[in-house]
C-alpha cells in the first residue's frame, strides 16, 4: 500500500475527530481522517444532548446548520422530585437562536451528520483504517494503519476515544479510564408518552435513580437512567431480565412517570459511566490527544461532545495563530486543560465517584470562553 502525506492525520472519525477535521480544514490545513470502523463508527445506540456552547463551537467551522437538521430542539427543562412535584422549570441555553439551541439526537445521527459534512468539505475520511502504531522524528510522524498503508504528517491527532491507543503511544504509563460509580440505561418508546411540553427535557431526582426523558416531535420518548451501583461486567448490551427488574423496582418507589416509561420500552441498553480524571500528558512533539481520549467525563453534565467541539475550534485557532507547532500545542493545552478538567470534576460530583463538598470556581469567565471560541478573535490564554 502506498504512503500518503498530509499536514495533519487524525485518528478516529467519531465526534472529536470529524469536528477537528472540519475546524483544521477551515484553518487551511490538509487533513486526513483515519477511522477504524469499516463503515461509520462504533455506536452505543445512545442519544446525546448538545449544549449551546457546543452548538456555538460548531458554528465557528460551519457545522451548526447541518447538525441542527439532525435530531430535534430542546428549549426548556424541568426537574421533578420523587413525588412528581415540579421543583423548577426554565428555558434551556440560548433558546432564541435556532443554531445555538440545545439539541437532542442519537449518537449515530450526530456522527453521520458530521461525517457527511467532512465529505461535503472534500476532506478525506478513510474507513477500515485503524491505527496500529506511530513513529515520530524531527521530520514528521508516520501512522501505520490496519489496511497496510501509512500516512506521514507534521502532526498526529488522537481522537480515538476513551480507550485511546494514541494516549498510550504518548505515555505508555498513562492511567486508563475509571468507573465513575453509576450504570447508565438508555431506551426509546412510542407506547409510553408522558404529558410533556414540546421541546422540554424533564429530569427526575428519584429515590433509586436519576432519570431524564423527553418526547421527540415524532412521538417517541427518549429516556436515560443513572443508577449508583457496582460496575457491570458486560456493557453496551441489553440488560438481563434481573437487571431490568431491579431498575423497574427502584423506579416504582417514586410517584413519577419513569417506571411506566421503562416498562413500555423493549430494547434497553446499559453501560458503565467512566471517566479519565487525570491524564498527565496530552502531547509529545508531534502527537496530541483530544476529545474523550484526553478528558472523558462521566455523562452527568452532558458536555462530552460539546467539549470535543470546543477542542476543535481552539486547536484550529492555536495552529492558525501560533508561530510554530510547538507553541500552538502549548497554547492549546493552556486553554483547554483547565476547562475540561473542571467539567470532569463537575460531572464526577454529580455522579458520585468523588463528591468534593464544593467545586472551585470555573477556570474561565463566560467572556473568556467566548473569546477562545470566536473564530475571528486571535487565540490567547
Ligand atoms: C452513556 C453516555 C452518555 C453520554 N451522553 C452525552 C450527552 O448527552 N451529551 C454529550 O455532549 N456527551 C455525552 N456523552 C459523551 C460523548 O459521547 C463523548 O464525549 C464523545 O462521544 C467523545 O467523542 P470522541 O470522538 O472523543 O470519542 P468517540 O465518540 O469514542 O469516538 C472515537 C472514534 O475513534 C475510533 N477509533 C478508536 N480507536 C481507533 C484506532 N486505533 N484507529 C482509528 N480509529 C479509532 C472509534 O471507532 C470512534 O469512531 C455520553 C457518553 C456516554 C458513554
UniProtKB/TrEMBL annotation:
Record GO terms (molecular function): FAD binding; monooxygenase activity
Pfam family, one: FAD_binding_3
UniProt cross-references to SUPFAM superfamilies, sorted A to Z: FAD/NAD(P)-binding domain
Keyword annotations: Monooxygenase, Oxidoreductase
Domain FAD-binding: 6-342
Location of region: Disordered: 348-369
Lineage: superkingdom: Bacteria
Name of protein: FAD-dependent oxidoreductase
Lineage, broadest ranks: Bacteria, Bacillati, Actinomycetota, Actinomycetes, Kineosporiales
